[in-house]
Amino acid sequence: MREDLLVAGGRPLAAGHDSLAFGVPVSAAGTTFALSITGGITVRPREGRAIVFGRNRPTPGCV
């Protein structure tokens, strides 16, 4: 996992986690899981957290 992708309340998914379709570890309600070809991350819920999809380039004017 790249250091610049680490966030408070986040942690890498276990190595070898092939697909989220096969399930995820037991976690708090609202936890977000993301998986890509280079690895995955799990992030606990937090008030005001924003999720950006794509290539980490927010659209101007969006928060």
Q: What's the arrangement of secondary structure elements?
A:
Layout: E1 10-12, E2 32-36, E3 39-43
Antiparallel strand pairs: 1-3, 2-3
Account of the 3D structure:
Helix content is 0%, strand content 21%. The protein is mostly beta strands. Strand 2 and strand 3 form a beta hairpin. The model has no long low-confidence stretch (mean pLDDT 77).
Summarize the structure in short.
The chain contains no helices and three strands. The chain is an all-beta fold.
What descriptors fit this protein?
3-stranded antiparallel beta sheet, mainly beta, single chain, 63 residues
Number of contiguous helices: 0
Large-scale geometry: globular
Oligomer kind:
single chain
Number of strands: 3
Uncertain residue segments = none
One letter per element, helices H and strands E, the order comes to EEE
Proportion of helical residues: under 10%
End-to-end separation: 25 Å
Structural class: mainly beta
Q: Mind telling me the C-alpha Rg?
A: 13 Å
Question: How many strands, which pairing sense, and closed or not: the largest β-sheet?
Answer: 3 strands, antiparallel
> Strand-residue fraction?
15-25%
Q: Strand arrangement, largest sheet?
A: 1-3-2
Mean pLDDT figure: 77
